[in-house]
Each structure stands twice: as C-alpha cells, then as structure tokens.
Amino acid sequence: MTIPLSLLLSLLLSFPVVMVDPHLHGVVLDHSTHRPLQGATVRVLGTRLGAITDAGGEFHVHDLRGDSVTLEVSMVGFTTQRLRVPTRGEADVVVDLLPQSMEQGVYVPTVTVIGHSSSTAAMPSQPTTVLSMEELDATRGSTFSDALENVTGVAVMRTGPSIAKPMIHGMSGTRLVLTQAGVAQEGQQWGEEHGPEIDPFLPARVTIVKGASGVRLGPNAMGGAISVDPEPLTTLTSGWRGEASSNLFSNALHGAVGGWLERTRLFDEDVSVRVHASARRAGDASTPDEVLGNTGFSAWSGAAQLTAGDQDLGLSVYGSHFATTLGIYAGSHLGNAADLQRAIERGRPSTTYDFTYAIGNPRQEIGHTLLSLQGHATLAPQTRLKVSYGWQQNDRSEFDKHNARIIGRGTDPVERARDSIARLQRSLATPAMNLLLTTYTAAAEVEHQLGSSIQGSAGVSGLRQVNDRSGRVFLVPDFLALGAGAWLYENYVAEDWSVNAGLRYDRRWLEALQQQKIYEGVSGSVGAMVDVTSDLRVQGNLGLAWRPPAVNELYSNDVHHGVARFEIGDSLLQAERSTGADLTVRWAAPSVEIEATAYGTWFSNYIFSVPDPDHPTITIRGVFPTFRFRQTQAMISGVDLSATVSVTSEVSIYGKGALVRGWDQVRAEPLFMMPADRLRLGTHVHLDDVLGMHESYVDVSVVGVRHQDQFVPGQDYVDPPPGYTLVDVAAGGIILVQSTQIRWGVTVRNLLNTSYRDYLSRYRYFADDPGRDIMIRFTVPFGDPP
Amino acid sequence: MKSCLAAGVVSVALLSTSCSESSHDHDHGEHDVVTTITMVLVAEGSTDTLRYSWDDPDGAGGQPPSIDTIMLAANTVYSAEIRILNDTEVPAEDLTSTIVNEGDQHQFFFRTSIADLALVAADQDVNGLPIGQRLRLTTGAAATGTIGMDLSHYDSPAAKDGQTPSDETDISIDFPAVVN
C-alpha cells in the first residue's frame, strides 16, 4: 500500500501543535483592491521550490527547511515582492500575519503586492519567465543575453564572446520586441551581428514572454518579448541603499564592476532617485586551442531613475546610456567567398594571435541613449490612465579591417606622402558604415476593471523613427518611419479559470529612397487558463501577429562581409504575418514540478534570404554568392519541457529541453538557422547554513546539444557542426560580514574545456566556441535594509 | 525637440549624445576604390602594346562589369604588366604604384584554364618574393579558356611566403582568353 507523501504530510500538519512545520501556506492579494490574485508565482529563493496561487490567491509550499525562507512573489502586471518569512515560531515576522487559516495552525503571511503595474508584454495565459535581480546576479555573463540562455525555449545567436542575440522559439531580431523601461528598444535589430544594447549589470527585472505579443507591443512581437524593467523604486519608505558588484571572467581576463545607489523619499517627499553605473573590459577570448584575435571589448553604462508621486498619481523618469566598443574576430573578415572557403578548409585561423586587450579593426562602436517617461493617474476607482514617452538614439559605427588603396594627392612628392598619411589616418577613423537611428515613441492607455471579474486595458501608441546612414557600405538606407496603433484587451477571471482576448490595429509609414510605403496589420490574441486541480494548470493561447519588412530586407544592396554574401533587398516585399498557438501544462506537486509547452506558428509571407546561384555577383574582389530576400509560407513549431524533482529537501534534480523545427512549406525544406535540439540535466544542492554561509548552493549540470540535422545540403558554406556536450558547475551563497550579506558565486562554464562549435555561432565556419570560463561574482549591499 | 530639453534637464551628466537626427558627415571617406584592371602586354620582339581591361565603374552590384577577351598569339612570349585604376575620379587614378610600394604585403596569384599557357611573376619585393605586378606569359598551342588573377593582401610582410594566398583578397577577376 502506498500513501501519497503529500497526504501523509498534511495529516501531520493538521496538528496545530506541530511546530516543525515544513509547509507554508499563504495568500496573495492585490494591494489596491485587496482581491485575491490568481496565477501569481511564489518562489522560495535559493531553492527550486515554488507554487502558483489558486483562484483564492492561496498557495502552499512544501518541504521547507530552516527557520525562515525568502519568498519571492511575482505576477504579470505587478511589482515583484520579496520577503523573509519564518517557517516556525513567531520571531522575526517581517510581514503582517493574518489568522485566516487557523484550521491548519499555520501562519499566513499577507503578501502585499503593490499596485504598480509594470510594463510587461504578456497576456495572463502566456508562458512567461521572470528573472529577478538575484537570478540575474547568478546567471550574469559577458552580455545581457547570456542571462536569458537558461530560460527554456530561448537560444542565443553569438558572434564571438561580445555579441549575443536572443532567439525565442526560433525567432530573433525583427521578430522579437525588447523593451527597456517600458519603451521598445529600437536598434539595428536586423543584423545577425547586432546584439541588444543593454548593460548586463542593470538593476532590473527581466520578463521573457514566449509567443506572439502583438496586442501589447504592436508589430514585430511575433516570437515573443523580453522586457527589462528597472527595479521598482518605492516612495513609501524613507532610506538609502545600494549595491556594488564585481564580475571576473577567466577566459578573456574580463573584469566588470557596477553598482547602484538609491535614495527613497528625498526631502521626505514622494520622490525617490536611483543612479547606476558600470564598466567592463575584456581581452581576446580563447578556444581550448587558440586565442581568438581581436575579440576583446569594452563597455560602460550609466542610468538614472526618478520616481515621484504615489499610486494614484505618479511619474517615473528613466534615462540611460550604454556605450561599447566591440572587436570582431580578425579571422572572420574575409575578402571574398573563395577566402571563406579556404578558411573553412583549413579549419583554423591562418595566424596565431597573442592575447591582448587592444581592439583593432574590424570593430563596432555603439552608443545607445534612452529616455523614458512613464506617468500614471487614477481617474476613478478601478480606472487608471498610464502614459509613456520614449526618446532613444542608437549610434552604430562599423569599421572595416583593411581599406582599399589610399594614395596622396598633390604634385610635390613630399606633399603627396603627407596627404597619403593624413588620408590613411582619416580612413581608419571613418566607419565603413555609420547608422544613427532616432526613435520617438508615445503611448497612452486606460486600465480598467469592469465589475468584479473583468480587467483590461485600451490604448493608443505612436512612433516616429529616423535613420541616417553614412559610409560606403550600403545595407540600409536613410529612412523615416511613422507608426500608429490602437488596442483593447480584457481578462475575465472566474473561480478556477480565466480567459482573455485582445485586438490591436497598427499602421506603419515608411519613406526611403524616394519611395513611400504603407503597411498595416491586425494583432490579436485569445487565451485561457484552467486550474484542473490544485496541482495542475493548463493554459493555451492563439495569437495573430505581423511585422512590416525591415529596411535591409527592402533595400540592402551590398556585400555583407561577415557572411561573405552579396545581399539584395526586394522593395516589393509584403508584410509578414503569423498565426500562433501554444499550450502549456504545468503540474506542481509537492516535490515534482513539470512544465511543458507545445507551440506552432504559421507564417504567410515569411521573409528570408535565399541564394540565387544562377546570378552570382561578380565584383573586382571576386565572386560573391548572391542572396535575395524572398517570401514564403513557413511554419515553426516546437516543444519546451522543464522538470524539477526534489529528491530530498536539499537535493533536487532538474531537466530542461527544447526542440524547434522550422519548415518552409513552399520549398518543402527546413528553414535556415533554427536552434539545434538541446537538453540540460542537472542537480542542485541547496544548504541553508554551511561553513558560516547562508543559502549556499552547488549546481552541476550537463548540457547536450544535438547535431542540427534539419538543413538543406549545400545551402550553407558548410554543413551544421556536430553535436556537443558541456559540463557546467556553479556554486554560491551569502556570506555575512558584520551583518552585511555579501552574495557570491562561482560558475565554471565548459568545465572540461571541450572544443565545440554551436550551430548558432556565426564563427562556426572558421573557429571553435570559447573554452573553459571561470566566473567569480560578488555583490555587496549597503545602506538601510530593504 | 522637447525630448532634448527633457533629456538635458533630467540627466545632464548621463546623456552625452547630441539630439541631432543626422550623423556626422556624408563624406564617403578616403578610400580609393578599384574599378578597373588593365593588362598591358607586349610580345617579345614587337613594339605593339595590347591592352585588355576588366572594368566595373559602378562598383559591386548594379551594372555587371565589362570584360575584354585577351587575344594572344600561339607560341609567343609576352611581357605583361597589371595596372590598377580608379575610374571614378577624373582623370582616372593609377593605384599601381601603391601596390608595388607595399609589394612585401601583396602578391598576385595567376591561374588559367589553358593547359599550354604559363604565367610567371617577373618582379620581386624587398624580401625577394614575387609580387606579380609584372609578369611573363608564354603561350603554346592554340586554345580557348580563361586567365584569372587574385591579389592577396597580407597584414604583415611576415605572413607572405610567396606561395600561400591570404584570406584577404583585394582583387579576384577572370578574363576570357583566346590563343590562336
């Protein structure tokens, strides 16, 4: 006879006298309405335990250890709340205790979720992952995108160690929207070697939404959305605090420092400010066998945030600047397609490079400045107006490695020689391509509540964008784009299910090369979430999304040197449209948590570039394969799977896997550059107190990536690389030094220094991916306790 | 330009970017573009000069290049020279001397589909390695095919060994050729 463990536990727990209670029971309420919140995620920090609140806002967490735990409560649309909760006794209770569930003899903390709606992109039923500051702390890497790689279903396209571009469910670039401080980031997303311009040290919370998010974010949010929101700045309590962090990476002898400082209730008014700054410098990265010449980079970033007012009327101003200089691997800059073929056949760089911090050409210099204003006002009970305004400028310069001949002008030989040197110096300082993209965005929305169970929002938004290019490389033209959109969505919450629906219309005007184009489209979504039992939740969505063609897809007409291709745009391309469906099943029993998502996205007018072998481009530098942008019917489908099993209260094992398949339905062949099948298996050991440290953990995992066998032979210069297996190890915790909780962590990536090439690495043609990297992280908080 | 004002007020220290929507300049830079390669041939014992050009004045893409067919006599030795020109300037600029002056960082490699045709460099850089700007052609029996040349650029003279092309090809072109 087997008695379910949970049943046994609850039998034990129903004795009020049992104080060694490993079970926590709570309720999550909306602070402004005091209504229970269904679907909030409750996690026990430092462990893999967690729960989701039911229709009554209640949650249960089992198998707790220690005297107290730190809970993190998050929900789409609300500010994440973190609080320390005793698991036994009454000491050090940091939250109100409401005796609501005395029948179980358990203290019930009321988790007050403040009604600061965040600028999130998700509909309530969409698969969403929120990375808190602590999680970002533990997964932070060289680039912002590194922290996203652990999220199931997210892959990262890399151009060396300094450029990483997130890909959600096989979609990246102009098929994703990334927002920072509520403003969609507008950079040169079309380039595979253009990463998001965001500082990994930013004190922020990152929300990853998988699936079409067009209703909330408008065009381009086909594959999903990533929103980077500054940590909320309270105006309720007075104090000052900050954090200083340092990250050191062994592979590229990369060092980074960052910190932030905040002062809340300045002059005892409803005004709070925070400033942030960081700087980093990395030298050349190394594969297990050699140095990757000219892959160093440097970056600095600064941000300031001011929040004034209260829940009923408030304004938040956020400004940031991010600047970076990125070296591009010297061996990747090739004269023509024959050079690339030779580099591939040789299998390794022609030169041996020595490690250096110096960054030579080819290189990118990028600055991104953002100013965001967000205001809110309560118009009537249960009706809120939110307005936002964003100004941003993305300044990108790309410098080529070596220049065509330069000769001096003039009649006198000395004069000629001087002129030639002056021209050479000017030439090295002049980018082959400079792009200055300025974007203004504005939006207004009214959040409303109808009756007791319908919540929603209606809004309008506008955009003005100007691109100014210079230089001799012609991948995108000057352009002016205007956009306008309007949307409405509602969410109905019943006892143990909810449904939501939304609709949005957008129009885009584009003026480039004396051509004027108008694109328009409808985004829509319908979603539902059902709690079948208290352990089992099923949620599903249908979504319509679209995007106008990107300017490079319309007008590119030059050699793209990184890929040794001549790319020709098609100015007659139509808007790309997609219909997506996803279904997520989440089962969260006391010691087992399983989440599985299956999805499919069907595209009409899917834009991609296709080789035109009959018309190679003959140039004086040789023959380049010609690629033309075309449209097709396509489908991308896949499965995300994650599971955690708690073996004991200290030890859990977990697995995360993702499968993606892309299919061109017209040509009946696989889509190019889909992530290979990936599975990570690991074990996580959590110890509350060991050797004077708190919340310590050790995590060992193995990631296996299969050979990408879905490809068209001969389409690429070389077939996809073989699969690989890497071992990663991480450890960390909190050290108390005179009551200061110093967070530390050590992560070793690629512990065994395995040589491998990832299919999504753009250097796969001629170089291995980086070898072992040991990362050491420290974060020292100071000031008043939170 | 309200945003500029706001940006200035809010965080003077942080926002270094000017609020202009246009970047620095539209000068297309200092680069000298190669548009034209001319092969100048003189048969041994003759004073007639033959000129054959590979010409792409509008650069990569756009109009295809115009390419002459090299006409050679059978069983003849030619001394030849390659001239590298920028036709976009008026008058056309001759970039040949810069290649020769940096001869230790450049080399022409030749190839041909005609079995009975030899192309051999007739010049040397300061290290005694061939440059190939001047060369000797020796024809045999009548044939039809192509003559191609690749100009390799080396980052440093140490990388040049006289035999191995670099991964940075400055010029890579093919001429149709007839020997009769």
Describe this protein's structure:
The complex is a heterodimer of chains A (about 775) and B (about 180). With about 775 residues, chain A is mainly β. Chain A has 2 domains: about 5-115, Immunoglobulin-like; about 130-400 and about 430-785, Beta Barrel (Maltoporin, Chain A), CATH 2.40.170. Chain A is built from 6 helices and 42 strands. Mean pLDDT of chain A is about 85; it is low at about 1-20 and about 90-120. Chain B has one domain (about 25-180). In chain B, the strands form 2 sheets. In chain B, strands 1, 2, 3, 5, 6, 8 and 9 form a 7-stranded antiparallel sheet that branches. In chain B, strand 5 and strand 6 form a beta hairpin. At the A-B interface, strand 19, strand 20, helix 4, strand 21 and strand 22 of A face helix 1, helix 2 and strand 11 of B.
The CATH first-level class of the largest domain in chain A comes to: Mainly Beta
Assigned CATH superfamily of the largest domain in chain A: TonB-dependent receptor, beta-barrel domain
Strand content of chain A: over 45%
Count of distinct strands of chain B? 11
Q: Terminal Cα separation of chain B, in Å?
A: 72 Å
Determine the structural class of chain A based on helices, strands and strand pairing.
mainly beta
Helicity of chain B, as a percent range:
under 10%
Task: Compute the average pLDDT of chain A.
Answer: 83
Question: Could you give a short account of the major beta sheet of chain A?
Answer: 22 strands, antiparallel, barrel
Please tell me the total number of domains of chain A: 2
Overall mean pLDDT score of chain B?
82
| Largest binding interface between chains | A-B, 65 and 55 residues
Order of helices and strands of chain B: HEEEEEEHEEEEE
Oligomer class:
heterodimer
Q: What is the terminal-to-terminal distance of chain A?
A: 49 Å
Strands of chain A, count: 42
Counted by DSSP, the helix tally of chain B is: 2
